[in-house]
Amino acid sequence: MKRKITYILLGALLLGVTACDNYIDIRPVGTVTVDSAYQYLELVSMPSRSYYPSAFAMLSDNCWIKESTVIGMENSSWDGINTSFNESGDRSILSDNNLYENCYQYILRENLVLSNVDQSRGADSIKTLAKAEARIMRAWDHFVAVNTFARAYNPSTANTDGGIAIMDKYDLEAKPAKASVAQVYDFLIREIEASLPDLKEAPLNEYHPNKAFGYAFAALVYLFHRDWQKAYDAADACLKLRSELVDYVALKAAGGPSKVKTYAKGGNPEVLNYAFMGSSTDNLTYVYGMIGPELVQLFGDSDLRLNLFFKTKGNSPSFFDEGSGAALWDSSIGYTKFFYSTVGLRTAEVYLIKAEAEARLGQTEASTATLNQLRSKRIEGSRAVLTTPSTEQEAMQNVIDERRRELLFGFHRFWDLKRFNTEPAYQKTLTRTFPLVDANVEHRTYTLAPDSKLYIIPFPVDVREKNPNMTNNE
What we know:
9 strands, about 475 residues, single chain, 15 helices, about 35% helix, two-stranded antiparallel ribbon
């Protein structure tokens, strides 16, 4: 017997994820009957997949913000609390701006596919592909959630560190217990390893996960799990399938990203999965697209990642404080000209994963060579070439610095700080003097300790109220 499911059209989104005991309320605006394997495969595709980082955007030494949006809000908004590293601020009642909701909304959708595609009509090969794609994306959404709402994976504490709810079944009435961080990572690895063999090198379109994305995601999870050799092997496998890097030196010669539209949405060869920091019409000028003075200095003079994409002067005063030393994403560069992937995976990140795995394995020369492959496409002149350091720790610092320059916005630096802070050799106490420009407000220096509770984002209030199992991980 055919099993039919009625679901919301892509344009009429699944709404209302509120808690894991009844964690989504489906309100159809327009419906269509899904009864074929191909329709389930199409359901995996999500052109507007987004993850908004407001709950943690300013808990980073990469980001900066216009002063007037924070002054006086140090106890009452995410940006105010996080900019001032205010551990006494009450984050428990603040909205998380839908990141948790979106993760579990997407997981629901993926579980819908996994629970029903086998009973649909159509070829077994399409069913197998739909399940592989849904499983790899279900793992991705759990990965986003655990690294945001729990402690970073630490092998000495992961078995007792509280994690997130693992939702591996389509069940609207579930009241799941909270898994440990170790259990979540075990789940992620099982999902990835089960999915990879059945992913295709050429998917239906760019919104479906392909095999290169699968290997890249595997490399990322293994890296965070400290499986250095597996991270290297998966990164290498990805780069054998997709190794393209946009040549920023050539891009500058051709007129720069505001003029050249070759790398607009759908045309950037580095992008391995499409996801957005705010919405599918992101312009980073208006969505946490400012980098701080410390990072501006780290770029130096010849790095085109700064020089082509940011403005340190001449920005609109509505979004930028002149004289702060920060830099703002050039508002003339939208996704119709250059698609800059903020929360999806890119080949550039895979090079960085490979370089870190090599450094961790003691292969400092290989790590430096991998970094130089990326840097040669980003930096003009002789400064693109790093010399091989003499120690693993120096090689790792090169990787950490390069990750800061390359992986701007979204999750990257926040997650990196969390995981590196579990290792004494790479811990960092953040220091921020704020404000820098407004002379009418006391300029204070704030610090964020490596073990600060601010690095663990609270679950939304309604999740905790409706499911007592979901206690905060602080």
